[in-house]
Amino acid sequence: MALRNRLPAPPIRFHRPRGLLRYTVERDLPVTMPDGVTLLADRYVPAGARRPPPTILVRSPYGRRGAGALAAGLPFVPFGFQLVVQSTRGTSGSGGEFDPLGSEGEDGLATVEWLRRRPWFGGSFATFGPSYLGYSAWAVAAAAGPELKAMSVQITASSFRDAAYVGGSFALESTLSWTDLTHRQQRRLGLLTAPLLSRRRAVRAAESGRPLGELDVVAGGASMRFYQDLLANHGTALAALAGAQAGDGAPGGYWDKRDFSSTVGDVTAPVTLLGGWYDVFLPWQIRDYLALRAGGHRPYLTVGPWWHTDARHGLVSLRETLAWFRAHLLGDPSGLRADPVRLYVTGAREWRHYRDWPPPGTRRERWHLQPGGGLGPDGPRDAPPSRYRFDPRRPTPALGGPTLLGVSRPVDNRPLERRPDVLVFTSPALTRDLEVIGPVSAELFARSDREHTDFVVRLCDVAPDGTSRNVCEGGLRLPAAAAAPVGTGGVRRVPVDLWPTGHRFPRGHRVRVHVTSGAHPKVAVNPGTGEPLGTARAMVAARQEVFHDPDRPSAIVLPVVERAAAAEPGDPGGT
Description:
The chain has helices at 67-71, 104-116, 131-141, 161-164, 172-184, 190-206, 215-220, 225-232, 234-245, 282-294, 312-329, 414-417; strands at residues 23-32, 38-46, 55-60, 82-87, 125-130, 148-154, 271-278, 300-307, 341-345, 350-354, 363-370, 374-376, 386-390, 423-426, 434-438, 441-448, 453-462, 468-478, 484-486, 491-497, 501-505, 510-516, 542-549, 552-553, 555-560, 566-569. By secondary structure, the protein is an alpha+beta fold. Strands 1-2-4-3-5-6-7-8-9-10-26 form an 11-stranded mixed β-sheet, with helices on both faces. Strands 11, 12, 13, 16, 19, 20, 23, 24 and 25 form a 9-stranded antiparallel β-sheet that branches. It has a 4-stranded antiparallel β-sheet with strand order 14-22-17-18, with no helix packed on it. The protein is globular. It folds into 3 domains: 3-15 and 23-159 and 260-336, Alpha/Beta hydrolase fold, catalytic domain (Rossmann fold), CATH 3.40.50; 163-240, no CATH class; 363-566, Jelly Rolls, CATH 2.60.120.260. The protein has 12 helices and 26 strands. Strand 19 and strand 20 (491-497) form a beta hairpin. Helix content is 22%, strand content 29%.
């Protein structure tokens, strides 16, 4: 019997409104921006509404009708909300040029001001949406005024900068595939074909061997502004990353009007966030949660075993958002859960409820990399370093792991582990369950004969039959401000932030760690020369050493919890 057929009833239920799920629509409402450009919006109103219902405002580059309307929240309308879906600048009939991320602050606040002046506006509104729709909600959240009563955003973050430059590298597959998608979707049938084909084009272009600056032409037949902007501002992003590591979080340059992370703590509207363990934006979505908590707020957080385009989180999002909006716009809190944080623990196949993130009582355990490929919480041992050679002309691939448009479910990494450019460290079989829930990090003591190189760390779960499935991963591009020299022998301490996780390693399984220097094409290969990212052509191999002795104890740091939280069996669909 399939697991979903043995599940208890969903924890939150709402009665379907009586009668047909009808609504009226006003199409192509003009909204004039301060610079004279006109954006278009559609307004959906529940049939029979006697007074202006609360408004849900959504701004999207993906269309406002059909599937675009459904993704923007049309299912909420029969429950007593009116929905305003606006096409962002340069998309689906709205005027101006689409400058991804660049206009959402100014245009969004101008739209809020327009909304206030409508005779049908009842004085309160909420924002909603996944991915870019959620980003556009963050763009107005801190300055929207007291009429903003609630936010519900999914698989998104208040800034996409660090997701584009993961650990200082360049998220090649995600940025190229999304740029191709938005470039093509304005063409006839583009909204239907681009989501199916853009990732394929991006991967094919990445494997062409051409310089990064030419890959947009290889993928889409034309130079694409957003992709070129990201390449050109790679240095700015690295400087901002170094500033953040030094305690100065100013975005700088290109990202000044595209990064809203510094305003998150000022948002007064109640916020609920939904993310996935394998989503490209999860680390920064959790950063938003922590910023809200630091600002004295009590946001809700749900994280399931989903990736960015995983359809399974859609129903969960609708259910939890409806409860959130009913509570904060209609005064009915009966659908809210008691604990703000709800996490699906992979490996255990159950949902857990916690008061906060990270779960209270989490302890940080160092599992040391050991000579001969060992791994464990016992101390490091005297031994020479482990070595490998990374050749950027034959880059180490990534199997599984977060990507924007692809399927990111865990996969068997044994083919990767047979490569000579991947170090593998494995624990003995566990004598009891090990539950790892929270932020995961690694501390490598490493030496390279190249100043410019990458280090990638991956955590895997090895089943008794030998299957080695990825759990989470992360990387750091050198030189980096955080990679401090250790002594005078060229060894550097390399801190690596992996994706957060919620995973049980069952008894009898083994914990495994990879250390390598590539994850192609998810991350653009480091050529080893320090040349500008977009034009580099020369490729130089790097000889890498990873130390694991008492003076240089490389380790992965696991957030270990005792199973004490309320739990409910469930499937990845959220029930």
